[in-house]
Amino acid sequence: MIQYTSQGRHLEDLYVELQPQLLRILASNLEAPGWVIDEACQAAWGLLMLQGPEIAAGQELGWLSTTATRTALRVLRRESFSEPCEALSPPARLDDRRAGGADPERAVEVSEHLAEVRRLPTRQQRVVMLHGFGYEYEEIAAVTGDTRRTVARQLTLARRRLAQLAAEA
Fold first, then answer.
1. Which of 43, 96, 140, 159 has the maximum number of C-beta atoms within 10 A of its C-beta?
2. Are 63 and 55 in contact (CB under 8 A)?
């Protein structure tokens, strides 16, 4: 662990001094869940460990707040692309005909959606299907060997492509 930042100040001392202020700054400047603020702060501190000697003494709080704010905004933007679970319709079962509850129109609609998904590149098909089965981004990343960011990016690209296909129809 790096024991100092700029001007020989110990990182631990700097953290104790600045972390409460950093949390207050982010909480007052952003409307974000606590986990986003925590993640952004920790990312900023991690970068400070790497770039500490380059930051002038006394400028750490300003640098940390700017870095953490930018990180939080990126996280919020990324999260805005993911749909909340409540907004998703319940999964359609095509084999419910035995129970007498199947809706033939719904079955055709699901088949058409699956045909559209099959027009996506294989990588996007995989993440769309896993996401459709209820997997979270982290779980999809673990299954596919991609990063969470790559999964989010592939889902965004897939959504755009599906919207284009729907507009063409």
1. 140
2. yes
